[in-house]
Design goal:
homodimer, TIM Barrel, 12 helices, two-stranded antiparallel ribbon, Hydroxymethylglutaryl-CoA lyase (chains A, B), 15% strand, metal ion binding (chains A, B), metal-binding (chains A, B), 13 strands
Protein backbone atom coordinates (compact mmCIF):
# COMPACT_ATOMS: atom_id res chain seq x y z
CA UNK A 1 0.00 0.00 0.00
CA UNK A 2 0.96 3.60 -0.46
CA UNK A 3 1.58 6.01 2.45
CA UNK A 4 -1.22 5.82 5.02
CA UNK A 5 -4.08 8.27 4.69
CA UNK A 6 -4.09 8.26 0.90
CA UNK A 7 -6.15 9.11 -0.97
CA UNK A 8 -6.98 11.98 1.33
CA UNK A 9 -10.77 12.44 1.38
CA UNK A 10 -11.65 15.95 0.22
CA UNK A 11 -15.29 16.26 -0.85
CA UNK A 12 -16.22 18.51 -3.75
CA UNK A 13 -19.44 20.46 -3.98
CA UNK A 14 -22.47 19.01 -5.70
CA UNK A 15 -21.47 15.36 -5.69
CA UNK A 16 -23.54 12.51 -4.30
CA UNK A 17 -22.60 11.17 -0.83
CA UNK A 18 -22.71 7.57 -1.98
CA UNK A 19 -22.23 5.72 -5.27
CA UNK A 20 -23.35 2.23 -6.15
CA UNK A 21 -20.74 0.44 -8.21
CA UNK A 22 -22.17 -2.07 -10.66
CA UNK A 23 -19.29 -4.52 -10.92
CA UNK A 24 -19.08 -6.15 -14.36
CA UNK A 25 -15.72 -7.94 -14.16
CA UNK A 26 -17.08 -11.45 -13.88
CA UNK A 27 -19.34 -11.06 -16.92
CA UNK A 28 -18.24 -8.20 -19.19
CA UNK A 29 -14.66 -8.56 -18.00
CA UNK A 30 -14.33 -12.25 -18.69
CA UNK A 31 -16.58 -12.73 -21.70
CA UNK A 32 -13.88 -12.08 -24.29
CA UNK A 33 -11.15 -14.10 -22.58
CA UNK A 34 -10.01 -16.76 -25.00
CA UNK A 35 -8.69 -19.32 -22.54
CA UNK A 36 -11.54 -20.90 -20.59
CA UNK A 37 -11.61 -19.79 -16.98
CA UNK A 38 -12.69 -22.68 -14.72
CA UNK A 39 -16.17 -22.32 -13.25
CA UNK A 40 -14.78 -22.60 -9.71
CA UNK A 41 -12.41 -19.70 -10.37
CA UNK A 42 -15.32 -17.60 -11.59
CA UNK A 43 -17.30 -18.46 -8.47
CA UNK A 44 -14.39 -17.53 -6.24
CA UNK A 45 -13.98 -14.28 -8.20
CA UNK A 46 -17.62 -13.33 -7.57
CA UNK A 47 -17.36 -14.29 -3.90
CA UNK A 48 -14.18 -12.28 -3.45
CA UNK A 49 -15.72 -9.25 -5.17
CA UNK A 50 -18.69 -9.44 -2.83
CA UNK A 51 -16.38 -9.87 0.18
CA UNK A 52 -14.53 -6.72 -0.92
CA UNK A 53 -17.79 -4.84 -0.41
CA UNK A 54 -19.26 -4.67 -3.90
CA UNK A 55 -23.04 -4.95 -3.62
CA UNK A 56 -23.88 -5.50 -7.29
CA UNK A 57 -21.76 -8.14 -8.96
CA UNK A 58 -22.92 -9.06 -12.45
CA UNK A 59 -22.36 -12.79 -12.47
CA UNK A 60 -22.66 -14.25 -15.95
CA UNK A 61 -24.65 -14.30 -19.16
CA UNK A 62 -27.34 -16.63 -20.41
CA UNK A 63 -26.49 -15.85 -24.00
CA UNK A 64 -26.27 -18.86 -26.31
CA UNK A 65 -22.93 -20.59 -25.62
CA UNK A 66 -22.10 -20.40 -29.31
CA UNK A 67 -21.76 -16.60 -29.04
CA UNK A 68 -19.94 -16.36 -25.73
CA UNK A 69 -18.18 -19.67 -25.13
CA UNK A 70 -16.41 -18.32 -22.03
CA UNK A 71 -19.76 -17.99 -20.24
CA UNK A 72 -21.20 -21.28 -21.46
CA UNK A 73 -21.05 -22.54 -17.87
CA UNK A 74 -23.67 -20.04 -16.61
CA UNK A 75 -26.02 -22.85 -15.59
CA UNK A 76 -23.35 -24.50 -13.49
CA UNK A 77 -21.85 -21.26 -12.14
CA UNK A 78 -24.98 -19.51 -10.97
CA UNK A 79 -26.01 -22.13 -8.37
CA UNK A 80 -22.44 -22.18 -7.01
CA UNK A 81 -22.75 -18.51 -6.09
CA UNK A 82 -25.55 -19.09 -3.60
CA UNK A 83 -27.34 -16.30 -1.86
CA UNK A 84 -24.97 -13.58 -0.67
CA UNK A 85 -26.69 -11.29 1.81
CA UNK A 86 -26.96 -7.72 0.60
CA UNK A 87 -25.43 -8.53 -2.77
CA UNK A 88 -27.25 -8.49 -6.09
CA UNK A 89 -26.07 -10.92 -8.76
CA UNK A 90 -27.60 -9.79 -12.04
CA UNK A 91 -27.22 -11.88 -15.18
CA UNK A 92 -27.43 -11.01 -18.86
CA UNK A 93 -30.36 -12.48 -20.82
CA UNK A 94 -30.60 -11.97 -24.56
CA UNK A 95 -33.99 -13.52 -25.23
CA UNK A 96 -36.87 -15.65 -23.92
CA UNK A 97 -34.76 -18.76 -23.74
CA UNK A 98 -32.05 -17.01 -21.73
CA UNK A 99 -34.63 -15.51 -19.41
CA UNK A 100 -36.17 -18.93 -18.81
CA UNK A 101 -32.80 -20.40 -17.91
CA UNK A 102 -31.98 -17.52 -15.55
CA UNK A 103 -35.36 -17.51 -13.83
CA UNK A 104 -35.31 -21.28 -13.41
CA UNK A 105 -32.10 -20.87 -11.40
CA UNK A 106 -33.61 -18.15 -9.23
CA UNK A 107 -32.00 -15.04 -10.74
CA UNK A 108 -33.60 -11.91 -9.29
CA UNK A 109 -31.97 -9.39 -11.54
CA UNK A 110 -31.55 -9.64 -15.28
CA UNK A 111 -30.22 -7.36 -18.00
CA UNK A 112 -30.94 -6.97 -21.70
CA UNK A 113 -28.62 -5.20 -24.12
CA UNK A 114 -29.60 -2.87 -26.93
CA UNK A 115 -27.63 -0.66 -29.30
CA UNK A 116 -27.95 3.05 -30.03
CA UNK A 117 -26.58 2.58 -33.54
CA UNK A 118 -27.72 0.52 -36.50
CA UNK A 119 -24.19 -0.63 -37.31
CA UNK A 120 -23.61 -2.16 -33.90
CA UNK A 121 -27.15 -3.56 -33.70
CA UNK A 122 -26.38 -5.43 -36.91
CA UNK A 123 -22.92 -6.48 -35.78
CA UNK A 124 -23.88 -7.58 -32.28
CA UNK A 125 -27.51 -8.66 -32.64
CA UNK A 126 -27.93 -9.17 -36.38
CA UNK A 127 -31.01 -6.94 -36.25
CA UNK A 128 -31.96 -3.32 -36.72
CA UNK A 129 -32.18 -1.20 -33.57
CA UNK A 130 -35.97 -1.46 -33.65
CA UNK A 131 -35.96 -5.19 -34.33
CA UNK A 132 -33.72 -5.64 -31.29
CA UNK A 133 -36.07 -3.54 -29.16
CA UNK A 134 -39.00 -5.62 -30.41
CA UNK A 135 -37.12 -8.77 -29.44
CA UNK A 136 -36.46 -7.48 -25.91
CA UNK A 137 -39.94 -6.14 -25.27
CA UNK A 138 -41.56 -9.48 -24.40
CA UNK A 139 -38.45 -10.56 -22.47
CA UNK A 140 -38.64 -7.48 -20.26
CA UNK A 141 -42.41 -7.86 -19.86
CA UNK A 142 -42.06 -11.49 -18.79
CA UNK A 143 -39.20 -10.66 -16.43
CA UNK A 144 -41.20 -7.88 -14.80
CA UNK A 145 -44.17 -10.19 -14.39
CA UNK A 146 -42.01 -12.84 -12.76
CA UNK A 147 -41.25 -13.07 -9.11
CA UNK A 148 -38.16 -14.43 -7.42
CA UNK A 149 -37.97 -14.81 -3.64
CA UNK A 150 -41.20 -12.81 -3.31
CA UNK A 151 -39.73 -9.84 -5.15
CA UNK A 152 -40.33 -8.56 -8.61
CA UNK A 153 -37.44 -9.23 -10.92
CA UNK A 154 -35.30 -6.15 -11.57
CA UNK A 155 -34.40 -5.44 -15.19
CA UNK A 156 -31.44 -3.42 -16.39
CA UNK A 157 -31.15 -2.22 -19.97
CA UNK A 158 -27.66 -1.90 -21.38
CA UNK A 159 -27.31 0.51 -24.25
CA UNK A 160 -24.14 0.29 -26.35
CA UNK A 161 -22.52 2.98 -28.51
CA UNK A 162 -24.15 5.94 -26.76
CA UNK A 163 -21.38 8.37 -27.79
CA UNK A 164 -19.41 7.09 -30.73
CA UNK A 165 -19.59 4.15 -33.07
CA UNK A 166 -16.60 2.63 -34.88
CA UNK A 167 -18.42 2.69 -38.20
CA UNK A 168 -20.72 5.69 -37.83
CA UNK A 169 -18.54 8.10 -35.83
CA UNK A 170 -20.29 10.47 -33.42
CA UNK A 171 -23.74 9.27 -32.38
CA UNK A 172 -26.48 11.95 -32.43
CA UNK A 173 -27.90 12.50 -28.95
CA UNK A 174 -31.59 12.34 -30.00
CA UNK A 175 -30.94 8.89 -31.44
CA UNK A 176 -29.62 7.70 -28.06
CA UNK A 177 -32.45 9.33 -26.14
CA UNK A 178 -35.02 7.58 -28.32
CA UNK A 179 -33.66 4.12 -27.51
CA UNK A 180 -33.30 5.01 -23.80
CA UNK A 181 -36.96 5.98 -23.71
CA UNK A 182 -37.96 2.80 -25.51
CA UNK A 183 -36.08 0.66 -22.96
CA UNK A 184 -37.69 2.46 -20.04
CA UNK A 185 -41.12 2.38 -21.66
CA UNK A 186 -40.93 -1.37 -22.07
CA UNK A 187 -40.28 -1.69 -18.33
CA UNK A 188 -36.53 -1.56 -17.68
CA UNK A 189 -35.86 -0.40 -14.12
CA UNK A 190 -32.53 1.15 -14.97
CA UNK A 191 -30.36 1.97 -17.94
CA UNK A 192 -26.62 1.61 -18.39
CA UNK A 193 -25.31 4.14 -20.90
CA UNK A 194 -22.32 2.55 -22.59
CA UNK A 195 -19.38 4.29 -24.23
CA UNK A 196 -18.45 1.05 -25.89
CA UNK A 197 -15.44 2.36 -27.80
CA UNK A 198 -14.33 4.78 -25.09
CA UNK A 199 -14.40 7.96 -27.17
CA UNK A 200 -16.69 10.12 -25.03
CA UNK A 201 -15.52 13.26 -23.27
CA UNK A 202 -17.15 15.06 -20.32
CA UNK A 203 -19.14 17.65 -22.29
CA UNK A 204 -20.70 14.93 -24.41
CA UNK A 205 -21.63 12.98 -21.28
CA UNK A 206 -23.26 16.04 -19.73
CA UNK A 207 -25.11 16.83 -22.95
CA UNK A 208 -26.61 13.34 -23.12
CA UNK A 209 -27.61 13.44 -19.45
CA UNK A 210 -29.19 16.88 -19.93
CA UNK A 211 -31.14 15.59 -22.94
CA UNK A 212 -32.42 12.66 -20.86
CA UNK A 213 -33.43 15.12 -18.12
CA UNK A 214 -35.40 17.12 -20.65
CA UNK A 215 -37.28 13.98 -21.62
CA UNK A 216 -38.17 13.38 -18.00
CA UNK A 217 -35.89 10.37 -17.44
CA UNK A 218 -35.08 10.32 -13.70
CA UNK A 219 -31.32 10.44 -13.09
CA UNK A 220 -31.61 7.71 -10.46
CA UNK A 221 -32.56 5.27 -13.20
CA UNK A 222 -29.36 5.97 -15.13
CA UNK A 223 -26.06 4.19 -14.75
CA UNK A 224 -22.94 5.05 -16.74
CA UNK A 225 -20.59 2.55 -18.31
CA UNK A 226 -17.36 4.11 -19.54
CA UNK A 227 -14.43 2.50 -21.27
CA UNK A 228 -10.89 3.70 -20.78
CA UNK A 229 -9.72 3.14 -24.36
CA UNK A 230 -8.65 6.78 -24.67
CA UNK A 231 -8.12 7.31 -20.93
CA UNK A 232 -11.34 9.30 -20.55
CA UNK A 233 -13.39 7.06 -18.27
CA UNK A 234 -12.74 8.75 -14.91
CA UNK A 235 -13.10 12.28 -16.22
CA UNK A 236 -16.41 11.22 -17.78
CA UNK A 237 -17.44 9.62 -14.50
CA UNK A 238 -16.68 12.85 -12.65
CA UNK A 239 -18.92 14.73 -15.06
CA UNK A 240 -21.72 12.18 -14.58
CA UNK A 241 -21.41 12.44 -10.78
CA UNK A 242 -21.63 16.22 -11.08
CA UNK A 243 -24.89 15.70 -12.93
CA UNK A 244 -26.18 13.52 -10.09
CA UNK A 245 -25.63 10.02 -11.44
CA UNK A 246 -25.05 7.54 -8.59
CA UNK A 247 -24.65 4.23 -10.42
CA UNK A 248 -21.33 3.60 -12.11
CA UNK A 249 -20.27 0.42 -13.91
CA UNK A 250 -16.70 -0.74 -13.54
CA UNK A 251 -14.67 -3.90 -13.92
CA UNK A 252 -12.31 -5.17 -11.22
CA UNK A 253 -8.72 -4.79 -12.38
CA UNK A 254 -9.93 -3.21 -15.62
CA UNK A 255 -10.77 -6.66 -16.98
CA UNK A 256 -12.41 -6.57 -20.35
CA UNK A 257 -9.98 -7.63 -22.95
CA UNK A 258 -7.10 -5.77 -24.40
CA UNK A 259 -7.77 -2.04 -24.55
CA UNK A 260 -5.89 -1.86 -27.84
CA UNK A 261 -7.89 -4.44 -29.66
CA UNK A 262 -10.16 -3.37 -32.46
CA UNK A 263 -13.08 -4.60 -30.36
CA UNK A 264 -12.26 -1.52 -28.28
CA UNK A 265 -12.88 -2.81 -24.84
CA UNK A 266 -10.92 -1.51 -21.89
CA UNK A 267 -13.41 -1.19 -19.07
CA UNK A 268 -12.95 1.42 -16.38
CA UNK A 269 -11.06 -0.35 -13.59
CA UNK A 270 -13.06 -0.54 -10.37
CA UNK A 271 -9.94 0.26 -8.34
CA UNK A 272 -9.24 3.47 -10.27
CA UNK A 273 -12.88 4.43 -9.72
CA UNK A 274 -12.78 3.62 -6.01
CA UNK A 275 -9.58 5.66 -5.59
CA UNK A 276 -11.35 8.70 -7.03
CA UNK A 277 -14.61 8.16 -5.14
CA UNK A 278 -12.91 7.67 -1.79
CA UNK A 279 -10.69 10.67 -2.52
CA UNK A 280 -13.88 12.65 -3.03
CA UNK A 281 -15.24 11.36 0.28
CA UNK A 282 -17.93 9.39 -1.54
CA UNK A 283 -18.98 6.16 0.14
CA UNK A 284 -18.83 2.95 -1.87
CA UNK A 285 -18.68 0.28 0.82
CA UNK A 286 -15.63 -1.13 -0.96
CA UNK A 287 -12.42 -2.17 0.79
CA UNK A 288 -9.82 -1.07 -1.79
CA UNK A 289 -7.11 -3.33 -0.39
CA UNK A 290 -9.26 -6.44 -0.60
CA UNK A 291 -10.45 -5.49 -4.06
CA UNK A 292 -6.89 -4.95 -5.29
CA UNK A 293 -5.85 -8.30 -3.82
CA UNK A 294 -8.72 -9.88 -5.73
CA UNK A 295 -7.64 -8.32 -9.00
CA UNK A 296 -4.04 -9.35 -8.46
CA UNK A 297 -5.24 -12.91 -7.79
CA UNK A 298 -7.44 -12.86 -10.91
CA UNK A 299 -4.56 -11.48 -13.00
CA UNK A 300 -2.52 -14.47 -11.88
CA UNK A 301 -5.32 -16.79 -12.98
CA UNK A 302 -5.41 -15.11 -16.39
CA UNK A 303 -1.63 -15.00 -16.70
CA UNK A 304 -1.18 -11.30 -17.38
CA UNK A 305 -1.00 -8.12 -15.32
CA UNK A 306 -4.03 -5.98 -14.61
CA UNK A 307 -4.30 -2.87 -16.80
CA UNK A 308 -5.63 -0.92 -13.79
CA UNK A 309 -3.19 1.82 -12.84
CA UNK A 310 -4.29 1.71 -9.22
CA UNK A 311 -3.86 -2.06 -9.03
CA UNK A 312 -0.38 -1.75 -10.50
CA UNK A 313 0.62 1.10 -8.19
CA UNK A 314 -0.72 -0.56 -5.06
CA UNK A 315 0.48 -4.06 -5.85
CA UNK A 316 3.94 -2.84 -6.77
CA UNK A 317 4.24 -1.05 -3.45
CA UNK A 318 3.05 -4.11 -1.57
CA UNK A 319 5.66 -6.31 -3.17
CA UNK B 1 -7.20 6.86 -36.75
CA UNK B 2 -10.58 6.06 -35.31
CA UNK B 3 -13.87 6.83 -37.10
CA UNK B 4 -13.90 10.38 -38.51
CA UNK B 5 -15.39 13.11 -36.36
CA UNK B 6 -14.15 11.64 -33.06
CA UNK B 7 -13.84 12.91 -30.46
CA UNK B 8 -17.03 14.84 -31.09
CA UNK B 9 -16.59 18.38 -29.77
CA UNK B 10 -19.25 19.09 -27.16
CA UNK B 11 -18.37 22.07 -24.95
CA UNK B 12 -19.31 22.03 -21.28
CA UNK B 13 -20.27 25.09 -19.28
CA UNK B 14 -17.69 27.06 -17.37
CA UNK B 15 -14.58 25.80 -19.11
CA UNK B 16 -11.91 27.95 -20.74
CA UNK B 17 -12.01 28.28 -24.57
CA UNK B 18 -8.30 27.59 -24.92
CA UNK B 19 -5.67 25.71 -22.91
CA UNK B 20 -1.91 26.07 -23.13
CA UNK B 21 -0.22 22.71 -22.86
CA UNK B 22 3.20 22.85 -21.25
CA UNK B 23 4.88 19.85 -22.87
CA UNK B 24 7.42 18.20 -20.56
CA UNK B 25 8.23 15.01 -22.48
CA UNK B 26 11.69 16.03 -23.66
CA UNK B 27 12.81 16.99 -20.14
CA UNK B 28 10.68 15.39 -17.42
CA UNK B 29 9.79 12.52 -19.73
CA UNK B 30 13.32 11.61 -20.67
CA UNK B 31 15.25 12.48 -17.52
CA UNK B 32 14.86 9.07 -15.88
CA UNK B 33 15.55 7.04 -19.01
CA UNK B 34 18.50 4.79 -18.29
CA UNK B 35 19.76 4.27 -21.81
CA UNK B 36 21.25 7.47 -23.18
CA UNK B 37 19.08 9.00 -25.88
CA UNK B 38 21.27 10.57 -28.61
CA UNK B 39 21.26 14.36 -28.63
CA UNK B 40 20.09 14.39 -32.25
CA UNK B 41 17.08 12.25 -31.32
CA UNK B 42 16.19 14.68 -28.52
CA UNK B 43 16.45 17.60 -30.93
CA UNK B 44 14.23 15.85 -33.45
CA UNK B 45 11.75 15.06 -30.64
CA UNK B 46 11.50 18.74 -29.67
CA UNK B 47 11.16 19.80 -33.30
CA UNK B 48 8.45 17.24 -33.93
CA UNK B 49 6.56 18.30 -30.80
CA UNK B 50 6.67 21.91 -31.96
CA UNK B 51 5.59 20.89 -35.45
CA UNK B 52 2.62 19.08 -33.90
CA UNK B 53 1.46 22.45 -32.58
CA UNK B 54 2.77 22.50 -29.01
CA UNK B 55 3.80 26.05 -28.16
CA UNK B 56 5.68 25.37 -24.92
CA UNK B 57 8.15 22.53 -25.15
CA UNK B 58 10.38 22.16 -22.11
CA UNK B 59 13.67 21.27 -23.70
CA UNK B 60 16.20 20.09 -21.13
CA UNK B 61 17.72 20.70 -17.74
CA UNK B 62 20.90 22.49 -16.67
CA UNK B 63 21.14 20.39 -13.54
CA UNK B 64 24.60 19.04 -12.77
CA UNK B 65 25.21 16.06 -15.11
CA UNK B 66 25.99 13.89 -12.10
CA UNK B 67 22.35 14.09 -10.97
CA UNK B 68 20.65 13.68 -14.33
CA UNK B 69 23.09 11.97 -16.70
CA UNK B 70 20.43 11.65 -19.40
CA UNK B 71 20.35 15.44 -19.78
CA UNK B 72 24.10 15.99 -19.51
CA UNK B 73 24.05 17.07 -23.15
CA UNK B 74 21.98 20.21 -22.46
CA UNK B 75 24.77 22.47 -23.67
CA UNK B 76 25.00 20.65 -26.97
CA UNK B 77 21.25 20.11 -27.38
CA UNK B 78 19.97 23.61 -26.74
CA UNK B 79 21.79 25.29 -29.67
CA UNK B 80 20.56 22.52 -31.99
CA UNK B 81 16.98 23.53 -31.28
CA UNK B 82 17.37 26.98 -32.76
CA UNK B 83 14.65 29.56 -32.63
CA UNK B 84 11.24 28.10 -33.40
CA UNK B 85 8.74 30.83 -34.14
CA UNK B 86 5.91 30.99 -31.63
CA UNK B 87 7.38 28.22 -29.50
CA UNK B 88 8.83 28.63 -26.01
CA UNK B 89 11.64 26.29 -25.03
CA UNK B 90 12.00 26.57 -21.24
CA UNK B 91 14.82 24.79 -19.44
CA UNK B 92 15.25 23.68 -15.85
CA UNK B 93 17.90 25.50 -13.78
CA UNK B 94 18.69 24.35 -10.25
CA UNK B 95 21.12 27.07 -9.19
CA UNK B 96 23.31 29.98 -10.23
CA UNK B 97 25.63 27.82 -12.25
CA UNK B 98 22.75 26.24 -14.17
CA UNK B 99 21.23 29.65 -14.79
CA UNK B 100 24.52 30.97 -16.14
CA UNK B 101 24.82 28.07 -18.55
CA UNK B 102 21.24 28.50 -19.73
CA UNK B 103 21.44 32.27 -20.16
CA UNK B 104 24.76 31.99 -21.98
CA UNK B 105 22.99 29.86 -24.58
CA UNK B 106 20.16 32.34 -24.94
CA UNK B 107 17.42 30.58 -22.97
CA UNK B 108 14.45 32.91 -22.53
CA UNK B 109 12.45 30.79 -20.13
CA UNK B 110 13.80 28.96 -17.12
CA UNK B 111 12.27 26.93 -14.31
CA UNK B 112 13.26 26.22 -10.72
CA UNK B 113 11.88 23.33 -8.69
CA UNK B 114 10.86 23.40 -5.05
CA UNK B 115 9.12 20.90 -2.79
CA UNK B 116 6.03 21.29 -0.63
CA UNK B 117 7.27 18.64 1.81
CA UNK B 118 10.38 18.36 3.95
CA UNK B 119 10.89 14.69 3.09
CA UNK B 120 11.05 15.31 -0.64
CA UNK B 121 13.10 18.51 -0.23
CA UNK B 122 15.68 16.40 1.59
CA UNK B 123 15.48 13.53 -0.88
CA UNK B 124 15.60 15.65 -4.02
CA UNK B 125 17.55 18.73 -2.98
CA UNK B 126 19.32 17.66 0.20
CA UNK B 127 17.91 20.74 1.90
CA UNK B 128 14.95 21.78 4.01
CA UNK B 129 12.05 23.41 2.20
CA UNK B 130 13.18 26.83 3.35
CA UNK B 131 16.82 26.20 2.51
CA UNK B 132 15.75 25.26 -1.00
CA UNK B 133 13.68 28.43 -1.30
CA UNK B 134 16.65 30.46 -0.07
CA UNK B 135 18.80 28.79 -2.71
CA UNK B 136 16.34 29.65 -5.50
CA UNK B 137 15.69 33.23 -4.45
CA UNK B 138 18.86 34.74 -5.97
CA UNK B 139 18.52 32.48 -9.02
CA UNK B 140 15.03 33.80 -9.70
CA UNK B 141 16.12 37.38 -8.98
CA UNK B 142 19.01 37.13 -11.43
CA UNK B 143 16.86 35.45 -14.06
CA UNK B 144 14.24 38.19 -13.77
CA UNK B 145 16.91 40.86 -14.06
CA UNK B 146 18.34 39.23 -17.16
CA UNK B 147 17.22 39.89 -20.68
CA UNK B 148 17.23 37.60 -23.63
CA UNK B 149 16.36 38.81 -27.09
CA UNK B 150 15.11 42.09 -25.61
CA UNK B 151 12.63 40.32 -23.36
CA UNK B 152 12.70 39.67 -19.67
CA UNK B 153 13.38 36.07 -18.87
CA UNK B 154 10.26 34.16 -17.81
CA UNK B 155 10.55 32.01 -14.68
CA UNK B 156 8.39 29.04 -13.81
CA UNK B 157 8.39 27.54 -10.33
CA UNK B 158 7.74 23.82 -10.11
CA UNK B 159 6.37 22.64 -6.82
CA UNK B 160 6.52 18.92 -6.09
CA UNK B 161 4.36 16.86 -3.70
CA UNK B 162 1.46 19.30 -3.58
CA UNK B 163 -1.08 16.62 -2.63
CA UNK B 164 0.57 13.54 -1.18
CA UNK B 165 4.07 12.53 -0.24
CA UNK B 166 5.37 8.95 -0.23
CA UNK B 167 6.80 9.35 3.28
CA UNK B 168 4.44 11.89 4.84
CA UNK B 169 1.08 10.89 3.33
CA UNK B 170 -1.46 13.66 2.70
CA UNK B 171 0.11 17.12 2.44
CA UNK B 172 -1.72 19.87 4.37
CA UNK B 173 -3.02 22.56 2.02
CA UNK B 174 -1.69 25.54 4.04
CA UNK B 175 1.80 24.06 3.77
CA UNK B 176 1.50 24.01 -0.03
CA UNK B 177 0.04 27.50 -0.18
CA UNK B 178 2.93 28.88 1.88
CA UNK B 179 5.53 27.59 -0.60
CA UNK B 180 3.46 28.75 -3.58
CA UNK B 181 3.37 32.26 -2.14
CA UNK B 182 7.10 32.19 -1.46
CA UNK B 183 7.82 31.21 -5.07
CA UNK B 184 5.60 33.98 -6.41
CA UNK B 185 6.97 36.52 -3.95
CA UNK B 186 10.51 35.83 -5.10
CA UNK B 187 9.45 36.59 -8.66
CA UNK B 188 8.27 33.42 -10.37
CA UNK B 189 5.94 34.26 -13.21
CA UNK B 190 4.00 31.05 -12.96
CA UNK B 191 3.69 27.98 -10.76
CA UNK B 192 3.32 24.34 -11.70
CA UNK B 193 1.49 22.43 -8.97
CA UNK B 194 2.81 18.90 -9.07
CA UNK B 195 1.05 15.73 -7.91
CA UNK B 196 4.36 13.93 -8.02
CA UNK B 197 3.07 10.55 -6.83
CA UNK B 198 -0.28 10.79 -8.59
CA UNK B 199 -2.53 10.38 -5.56
CA UNK B 200 -4.67 13.53 -5.85
CA UNK B 201 -8.39 13.43 -6.56
CA UNK B 202 -10.61 16.22 -7.91
CA UNK B 203 -11.92 17.54 -4.56
CA UNK B 204 -8.38 17.91 -3.28
CA UNK B 205 -7.37 19.78 -6.44
CA UNK B 206 -10.31 22.16 -6.10
CA UNK B 207 -9.58 22.73 -2.41
CA UNK B 208 -5.97 23.68 -3.11
CA UNK B 209 -7.00 26.01 -5.95
CA UNK B 210 -9.64 27.63 -3.71
CA UNK B 211 -7.05 28.14 -0.98
CA UNK B 212 -4.74 29.82 -3.48
CA UNK B 213 -7.64 32.03 -4.60
CA UNK B 214 -8.19 33.09 -1.01
CA UNK B 215 -4.58 34.13 -0.78
CA UNK B 216 -4.97 36.27 -3.87
CA UNK B 217 -2.93 34.08 -6.23
CA UNK B 218 -4.24 34.75 -9.75
CA UNK B 219 -5.42 31.57 -11.44
CA UNK B 220 -3.67 32.56 -14.66
CA UNK B 221 -0.34 32.14 -12.91
CA UNK B 222 -1.10 28.53 -12.00
CA UNK B 223 -0.35 25.45 -14.05
CA UNK B 224 -1.23 21.92 -13.00
CA UNK B 225 1.03 18.92 -13.34
CA UNK B 226 -0.75 15.65 -12.71
CA UNK B 227 0.61 12.15 -12.76
CA UNK B 228 -1.45 9.18 -13.84
CA UNK B 229 -0.06 6.69 -11.33
CA UNK B 230 -3.56 5.94 -10.01
CA UNK B 231 -5.36 6.92 -13.23
CA UNK B 232 -6.58 10.22 -11.76
CA UNK B 233 -4.78 12.78 -13.94
CA UNK B 234 -7.54 13.61 -16.42
CA UNK B 235 -10.30 13.79 -13.81
CA UNK B 236 -8.06 16.15 -11.81
CA UNK B 237 -7.41 18.18 -14.95
CA UNK B 238 -11.15 18.50 -15.56
CA UNK B 239 -11.59 19.83 -12.02
CA UNK B 240 -8.76 22.32 -12.53
CA UNK B 241 -10.28 23.51 -15.82
CA UNK B 242 -13.61 23.97 -14.06
CA UNK B 243 -11.79 26.21 -11.61
CA UNK B 244 -10.40 28.27 -14.50
CA UNK B 245 -6.88 26.91 -14.84
CA UNK B 246 -5.64 27.23 -18.43
CA UNK B 247 -2.09 25.84 -18.25
CA UNK B 248 -1.74 22.07 -18.08
CA UNK B 249 1.51 20.12 -18.06
CA UNK B 250 1.63 16.86 -19.96
CA UNK B 251 4.20 14.53 -21.50
CA UNK B 252 3.97 13.26 -25.07
CA UNK B 253 3.16 9.57 -25.06
CA UNK B 254 3.03 9.60 -21.25
CA UNK B 255 6.82 9.52 -21.12
CA UNK B 256 8.21 9.78 -17.64
CA UNK B 257 9.44 6.44 -16.56
CA UNK B 258 7.54 3.39 -15.53
CA UNK B 259 4.32 4.36 -13.81
CA UNK B 260 4.73 1.42 -11.45
CA UNK B 261 8.16 2.30 -10.18
CA UNK B 262 8.56 3.43 -6.61
CA UNK B 263 9.73 6.76 -8.00
CA UNK B 264 6.06 7.14 -8.89
CA UNK B 265 6.33 8.87 -12.18
CA UNK B 266 3.73 8.32 -14.84
CA UNK B 267 3.08 11.70 -16.38
CA UNK B 268 -0.28 12.52 -17.86
CA UNK B 269 0.01 11.70 -21.57
CA UNK B 270 -0.39 14.73 -23.80
CA UNK B 271 -2.48 12.72 -26.25
CA UNK B 272 -4.99 11.66 -23.57
CA UNK B 273 -5.21 15.31 -22.51
CA UNK B 274 -5.68 16.56 -26.07
CA UNK B 275 -8.42 13.97 -26.70
CA UNK B 276 -10.35 15.35 -23.71
CA UNK B 277 -9.71 19.00 -24.53
CA UNK B 278 -10.71 18.66 -28.17
CA UNK B 279 -13.75 16.64 -27.08
CA UNK B 280 -14.68 19.58 -24.87
CA UNK B 281 -14.24 21.95 -27.81
CA UNK B 282 -11.22 23.55 -26.12
CA UNK B 283 -8.54 24.85 -28.48
CA UNK B 284 -4.98 23.63 -28.01
CA UNK B 285 -3.43 24.23 -31.40
CA UNK B 286 -2.26 20.62 -31.38
CA UNK B 287 -2.59 18.22 -34.30
CA UNK B 288 -3.39 14.98 -32.48
CA UNK B 289 -2.40 12.78 -35.40
CA UNK B 290 1.03 14.37 -35.74
CA UNK B 291 1.54 14.26 -32.00
CA UNK B 292 0.62 10.57 -31.87
CA UNK B 293 3.00 9.84 -34.74
CA UNK B 294 5.73 11.60 -32.77
CA UNK B 295 5.09 9.51 -29.68
CA UNK B 296 5.03 6.32 -31.71
CA UNK B 297 8.36 7.32 -33.26
CA UNK B 298 9.82 8.15 -29.82
CA UNK B 299 8.55 4.85 -28.40
CA UNK B 300 10.48 3.11 -31.17
CA UNK B 301 13.59 5.04 -30.21
CA UNK B 302 13.17 3.98 -26.59
CA UNK B 303 12.30 0.41 -27.48
CA UNK B 304 9.01 0.11 -25.61
CA UNK B 305 5.38 1.03 -26.26
CA UNK B 306 3.89 4.30 -25.09
CA UNK B 307 1.78 4.02 -21.93
CA UNK B 308 -0.67 6.57 -23.35
CA UNK B 309 -4.04 4.95 -23.90
CA UNK B 310 -4.84 7.34 -26.74
CA UNK B 311 -1.53 6.64 -28.48
CA UNK B 312 -2.15 2.92 -28.18
CA UNK B 313 -5.73 3.16 -29.41
CA UNK B 314 -4.90 5.42 -32.35
CA UNK B 315 -1.70 3.69 -33.38
CA UNK B 316 -3.34 0.27 -33.21
CA UNK B 317 -6.07 1.45 -35.50
CA UNK B 318 -3.59 2.92 -37.90
CA UNK B 319 -1.70 -0.33 -38.17
Amino acid sequence: MTAPGLPMAVPARGLPPRVRIHEVGARDGLQNEKATVPTEVKAEFVHRLAAAGLTTVEATSFVHPKWVPQLADAERLFPLLGDIEGVHLPVLVPNDRGLDRALALGARRVAVFASATESFAQANLNRTVDEALAMFEPVVARAKAAEAAHERVHVRGYLSMCFGDPWEGPVPIPQVVRVCKALLDMGCDELSLGDTIGVATPGHVLALLAALDEQGVPTDRIGVHFHDTYGQALANTLAALQHGVTTVDASAGGLGGCPYAKSATGNLATEDLVWMLHGLGIETGVDLGRLTDTSVWMATQLGRPSPSRTVRALSHKES
